[in-house]
């Protein structure tokens, strides 16, 4: 339990051509593979009206949704093809955030003991069922940049505190990057994880020096990186052709002096007492170094500033650094679209980070819109087929299966507590502040040395591949409607639309190829799948007619090398 916390369907997709279809679309939304259980009285796309910036075809729509959401659904396909890209993104901006902490606190108030297991359940629920899909994808991406982990002994007992930290990322996912920097810096979860909570000013007599951990990672991992970058994210070189470091050890030491004097909100003592893991940390001026500081680039913070003034001034210096735009653009593109973005792609997104068109710097909603609508995102699979694409993260792939097929359990929970045992990752559970994988990891083999990155391959070991296939087997073959050994925690898939296609192997394969692979299946794979499905009897497996065909097709797609890719 939290310690001393002070505060608390899947269905066939209609082709949309005329506005007169709108009423029919609202009905269609309720009967689909992967749709929500309850249909809004007026679906968002009907309110938006017919758009002009429509996907080129259903594959273009599916590719967009594969990046913008945790899984393609018929509802989203219908709306996107009717209202267009920008209307979809406008809608996502307006949707209220799906948060974790309020739900955990409600369960705790009802008498339930809260541990990390329940936090994982809430992560799955929001990823699979949340209407705010774009915000959830961005929050997950940000959680792999502003890393904290429940594997830390300092955090493992604070599930609600970690839920609030994830909620901070969720609320800020489409907001100001500068505001997010401040919220993360003041978070007691981050303060514990990177040890600037209860960090005090230097005292040579007692051999006390400010802790440098957060100061170092704030620069290295959260905003500017190790080397100076050109606007397109490529290394900036000096006159001798050498890379230029962004900061020195002295810069770390000076910034660490800024990060002094912060402890738990409401604490009666700086060094000990109740631990409020929810509210932002509060400053104790007596423990803060208020002398002048010189930060990277020569920026001077004058003596006499309060802890709050020092912190915000230092964050302003970092936020205005030329590296921040390309540094963050590259990482967000990697998490959402492609592992090795072209320099021009990075530069275009970084330019939007620098100025969203209204003079605002660091507008994350504008940044993710630029990422998703860039020409490379929309057509890179055609124009740069040898360099474009990424291996989808295991958590995203699992959430996608459940989301596409409207997965739900009778208990109302997604009781998959330890996905790291199968997939090598779980939300806020990396082995270190460096995340589950490095952004510039090059897998052994053809990619190595070719300047092509594959971060997710770093956790794709032989063991993980085997365990993932086994887990998918359980989550598919033991999750169809009517499965005899299901219990209240079985996440059952809605497969009505797929069963309706089971007697037509080509149609079934094409349908599932669209929803699970955005229509990017090779001809060879399609031929092999159609042959397999055709060889399976409609009444095979002691299951409802056609079910074995449907389950086989889903399983073979999601466990295939092609099915693991986002192209």
Report on the architecture of this protein.
This is DUF1800 domain-containing protein. Pfam families: DUF1800. It comes from Saltatorellus ferox. InterPro entries: DUF1800. The structure is a single chain. The protein has a two-stranded antiparallel sheet with strand order 1-2. The relative contact order is 0.11. It is globular, with a radius of gyration of 25 Å. Helix 8 crosses helix 9 and helix 23 crosses helix 24. The protein is mostly helical and 567 residues long. It is 46% helix and 2% strand.
Please, what is the average pLDDT? 94
The coarse overall form would be: globular
Low-confidence stretches: 1-32, 34-41
Helix content: 40-55%
Spatial ordering of strands, largest sheet: 1-2
Number of helix segments?
A: 25
Radius of gyration: 25 Å
Which class do the helix and strand fractions yield? mainly alpha
Number of strands: 6
Question: How big a fraction of the residues is strand?
Answer: under 5%
**Distance linking N and C termini:** 42 Å
Main sheet: strands, sense, barrel: 2 strands, antiparallel
InterPro entries: DUF1800 (IPR014917)
Protein name: DUF1800 domain-containing protein
Pfam families: DUF1800
């Amino acid at each position: 339990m939290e310690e001393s916390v002070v505060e608390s369907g899947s269905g066939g997709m209609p082709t949309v051509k005329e506005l007169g279809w709108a009423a029919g679309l609202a009905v269609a939304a309720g009967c689909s593979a992967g749709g929500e259980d309850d249909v809004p009285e007026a679906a968002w796309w009907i309110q938006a009206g017919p758009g002009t910036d429509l996907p080129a075809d259903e594959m273009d729509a599916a590719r967009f949704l594969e990046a913008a959401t945790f899984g393609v659904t018929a509802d989203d396909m219908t709306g996107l093809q009717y209202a267009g890209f920008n209307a979809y993104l406008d809608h996502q901006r307006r949707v209220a955030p799906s948060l974790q902490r309020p739900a955990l606190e409600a369960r705790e108030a009802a008498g339930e003991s809260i541990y990390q297991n329940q936090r994982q359940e809430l992560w799955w629920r929001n990823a699979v069922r949340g209407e705010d899909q774009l915000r959830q994808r961005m929050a997950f991406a940000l959680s792999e940049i502003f890393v904290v982990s429940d594997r830390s002994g300092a955090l493992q007992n604070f599930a609600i505190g970690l839920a609030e930290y994830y909620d901070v990322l969720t609320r800020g996912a489409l907001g100001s990057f500068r505001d997010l920097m401040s919220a993360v810096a003041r978070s007691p979860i981050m303060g514990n994880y990177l040890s600037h909570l209860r960090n005090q000013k230097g005292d040579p007599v007692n051999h006390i020096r400010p802790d440098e951990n957060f100061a170092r990672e704030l620069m290295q991992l959260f905003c500017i990186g190790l080397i100076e970058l050109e606007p397109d994210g490529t290394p900036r070189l000096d006159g001798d052709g050498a890379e230029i470091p962004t900061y020195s050890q002295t810069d770390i030491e000076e910034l660490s002096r800024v990060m002094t004097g912060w402890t738990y909100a409401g604490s009666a003592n700086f060094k000990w007492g109740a631990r409020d893991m929810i509210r932002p940390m509060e400053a104790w001026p007596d423990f803060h170094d208020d002398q002048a500081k010189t930060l990277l680039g020569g920026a001077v913070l004058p003596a006499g500033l309060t802890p709050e003034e020092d912190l915000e001034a230092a964050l302003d210096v970092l936020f205005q650094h030329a590296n921040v735009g390309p540094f963050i653009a590259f990482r967000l593109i990697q998490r959402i679209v492609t592992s090795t973005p072209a320099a021009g792609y990075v530069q275009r997104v970084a330019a939007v980070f620098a100025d969203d068109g209204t003079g605002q710097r660091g507008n994350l909603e504008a940044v993710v819109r630029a990422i998703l609508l860039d020409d490379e995102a929309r057509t890179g699979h055609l124009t740069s087929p040898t360099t474009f694409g990424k291996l989808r993260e295991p958590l995203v792939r699992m959430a996608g299966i459940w989301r596409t097929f409207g997965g739900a359990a009778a208990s109302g929970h997604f009781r998959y507590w330890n996905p790291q045992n199968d997939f090598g990752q779980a939300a806020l559970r990396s082995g270190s502040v460096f995340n589950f994988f490095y952004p510039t990891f090059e897998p052994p083999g053809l990619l190595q040395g070719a300047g092509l990155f594959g971060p997710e391959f770093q956790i794709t070991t032989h063991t993980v591949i085997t365990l993932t296939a086994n887990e998918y087997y359980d989550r598919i073959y033991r999750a169809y409607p009517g499965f005899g050994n299901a219990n209240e925690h079985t996440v059952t898939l809605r497969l009505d639309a797929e069963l309706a296609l089971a007697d037509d192997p080509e149609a079934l394969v094409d349908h599932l190829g669209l929803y699970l692979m955005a229509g990017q299946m090779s001809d060879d794979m399609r031929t092999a799948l159609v042959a397999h499905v055709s060889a399976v009897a409609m009444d095979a497996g002691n299951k409802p007619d056609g079910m074995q065909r449907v389950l086989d097709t889903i399983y073979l797609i999601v466990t295939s090398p092609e099915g693991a890719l986002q192209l």
